[in-house]
Batch of 2 targets.
Target 1
Amino acid sequence: MRYQNWLEKNIADLSNKTYVITGASDGIGLFSALQLASRGAHIIMASRNEAKNQKAMERIYRDVPHAKLTYVHYDQSSFTHIDAFVKTMKQHHPKVDGVLLNAGIIMPPKDQMTPEGFPLTTGVNAINVYYLLREWLGFLDQHNQEVKLVFVGSYSSYNTRLNDLEELLNPRLSRMQQYAKSKLALAMFHHVFQMNLNLFDFPVLDHIHALLVHPGLASTNITHSLPNSLAKFVNGWIRFWSQDAEAGALSLTYAMGHPFTVNGSFYGPNGPGERFGYPKKLTLRPHFSQGSAKFTYALGKYLKKEFSHVRSE
Ligand SMILES: NC(=O)c1ccc[n+]([C@@H]2O[C@H](COP(=O)([O-])OP(=O)(O)OC[C@H]3O[C@@H](n4cnc5c(N)ncnc54)[C@H](OP(=O)(O)O)[C@@H]3O)[C@@H](O)[C@H]2O)c1
């Protein structure tokens, strides 16, 4: 298995840990599942496509024959699907030591919307992550001693800004802006959870540790929404200049599995331009926190007002 020495040196013995990984059927989520499982963790693979997830499990068993893997259906594209997932998790898997919030998409056609009416990228990557946490985090906090929440951001969030909720929901955003702002929203969620700020419609949380990562650039299937020839070109370019999915997973694995990664920290690759490399601690950008409380509070209020009939309990 690649990185075995590094994993043994940097990742704790995780034999008594259970981690949930959203979007574990492919890409860096799949390889993070493999790497954490290789250190003994029980991985709950929260994925939307069972057949595809089965193949992902087979890939993991190839390198880690005794991996402890469980599949739970998870589709981040609608509140209804998230409700079903949260219900299953509360009933069958109350003990969770960490959640790797990895599922994400980039640049689907602009007219694709979530059933709640959000542009698909904004909904899947940001708003529905917030909704998942609103529905689940209080329960996790009550039933566990310590829960690591690892938000998977992107360095596309370095060069954008989010001054208010309207800016995230602006229908005139380009597809790339939707992606970058959705990832900045995750960085802002990271800030409010790590500071344990008063959040609208959330209970007080005592056991949550929020961490942020970005994987650099990794050649994965995330480009599948791009026209075929462009996806091939982009992936070829990334592979040449950067890394594959297995290498891209290292920052995620490190944030979750290193024994001393703590609330509030941010990790990404140590190579040039943070494109590739082994994980290192990064500096949080000022705009990840500026206005994050106001933004998150506004989102909470908006969801409560527009979707008050929707609650998973
Ligand atoms: N690759 C990069 O260079 C890069 C850079 C920065 C950040 N990231 C972030 O890293 C994360 C993983 O991306 P990746 O590059 O590994 O892409 P990927 O290979 O396309 O994997 C994405 C995963 O998310 C899942 N997913 C997508 N929509 C979902 C939904 N509605 N519900 C549940 N799961 C869903 C996919 O499921 P299916 O298998 O069913 O499609 C897949 O398992 C994303 O959040 C991405 O934004 C990636």
Target 2
Amino acid sequence: MDAQAIGGSCLCGSVAYEIMPPFMFFQYCYCSRCRKNSGSAHAANIMMEAAQFKWLRGEENIKVFRMPDVRAFSTSFCTVCGSALPWLTKNEKFYIVPAGGLNDDPDAKPDRNIHWASRAAWYVPEGELPCFEEAST
Ligand SMILES: [Zn+2]
Ligand SMILES: [Zn+2]
């Protein structure tokens, strides 16, 4: 691969990883599980083959949660700071990477919304809100 690796890490910095393009998908998911996990209106997830993902440090601080009685949903987080982290899919073929953890521009953008019908009642598309370059006053 001649592509440039893209780095990511958790909030406290104890866990770090890198990913290699090209990606299988980059999407926003509005399902209730992703909303619970992200604490936000939607997840922003990138998926790639497992071989395109590498942990750089802190694997001892990762906890993976495999949701019982569902086909595939999992989450992963830093046990020090709680940040969402990438996880290996149950079939161990792919990694799902929460894009907010990336430190570099992945040179890819989300191209679809999934589970749109499950979006929160309070969801307002970001582009419909006033924008402030820093915190609003
Ligand atoms: Zn951390
Ligand atoms: Zn979801």
